[in-house]
Amino acid sequence: MNTNSDNRISTALLLAAGTGSRLFPLTKSSPKCLTLVNEKSILERLIRNLKKQGFKRLVIVTGYQKECIMDFLGNQSGDLRIEYINSPDFRTTNNIYSLWMARNIINEPFVLFESDLVLNTSLLDEMVYPDRMAVAKMQPWLDGTTVTLDQENKVTHFQKGTTKSYSGIRFKTVNIYSFSLSSWRAIVKRLTQYIDAGNVNCYYETVFSEMVEEQSLALESVSFDHKPWYEIDTIHDLAEAEKLFPLELTKRERREQAYA
User: Fold this and answer.
1) How are beta strands 155-159 and 146-149 bridged, if at all?
2) Which of 45, 91, 164, 184 has the most CB atoms in a 10 Å sphere around its CB?
3) Are 124 and 8 a contacting pair, CB within 8 Å?
4) How many other CB atoms sit within 10 Å of the CB of residue 219?
5) How far from each other are the two terminal CA atoms of the chain, in whole angstroms?
6) How far, in Å, CA of 170 to CA of 136, rounded?
7) Of 123, 109, 106, the residue nearest 49 (C-alpha)
8) What is the Cα–Cα distance from 243 to 38, expressed in whole angstroms?
9) 153: closest CA among 218, 226, 220, 223?
10) Which residues pair with 61 in a beta bridge?
11) Distance CA 104, CA 61 (A)
12) What whole-number distance in Å separates Cα of residue 120 and Cα of residue 136?
């Protein structure tokens, strides 16, 4: 992989407008991204990862319980500047609309995140360069969209769901993408066509899939198989994630345990 530091990305976009209904009642009065995973929220973990990777700008698309996110983060965290876009139609739209909402505020390469992922920081090492897509080999407990790759690890096809059989190894989408400015501009054009046609309640993967098929978007895959990550949609997912990301003790707490 070409990892020239000159094209290292320093802007992130987080889509956090949804209601997180499958995590109810934990999301009754706060957004999914503030759900605690062993006493540290999904959002806090992401912010720490971004700062460790040298990100300087974070744009968050908010909707449900947006004040909770804004109160928690403010406009700055260390060297990370934080900006917000509110999606007032979050109850009747899906992530294709949230991504489209960022079309005017982001005019540089960026990494796209969903608000339900916890991951080891080092997994982002290869994602901070343009036009990449995080994937993991399909496992029995995973579901959702998969992709196929060619011999050069380029994404060739998206498959909706996992029930349709096809040859080759299945790779699960991890829902982290990086885009060059030229790719983003092409994506915005296609997103706008969908939104103008009233297709506001589908997934942005529909657009990515079409563009990959017609070769107007090229994405290089980045494997997430070597370090822990988890997508948290349900209470069960949360329990599994807490097994992978145990409670982190402070230095003082570790010393106290050692001498107990």
Assistant:
1) antiparallel
2) 184
3) no
4) 24
5) 48
6) 8
7) 123
8) 9
9) 220
10) 15, 85
11) 12
12) 14
Pairing mode, strands 132-137 and 117-119: unpaired
Exposed/middle/buried for residue 200 (C-beta within 10 Å: 0-12, 13-18, 19+) = middle
**H-type alpha helices, 37-156:** 42-52, 66-73, 95-101
Shortest CA distance to 35 belongs to which of 248, 242, 244? 242
pTM over 0.85: yes
- Check: CB of residue 201 under 8 Å from CB of residue 226: no
Residue type, 2: N
Sign for the pseudo-dihedral over CA of 163, 199, 32, 127: positive
DSSP3 helix / strand / coil % (the chain, rounded to 5): 30, 25, 45
Please report the domains of the chain, with CATH numbers, ordered by start residue.
Answer: 8-135+174-259 (3.90.550.10)
CA–CA gap between residue 23 and residue 237 (Å, rounded) = 9
> Which residues make beta-bridge pairs with 230?
118
Backbone angles phi, psi at 193, to 5 degrees: -60, -45
Which residue shows structure tokens 């069960």?
236
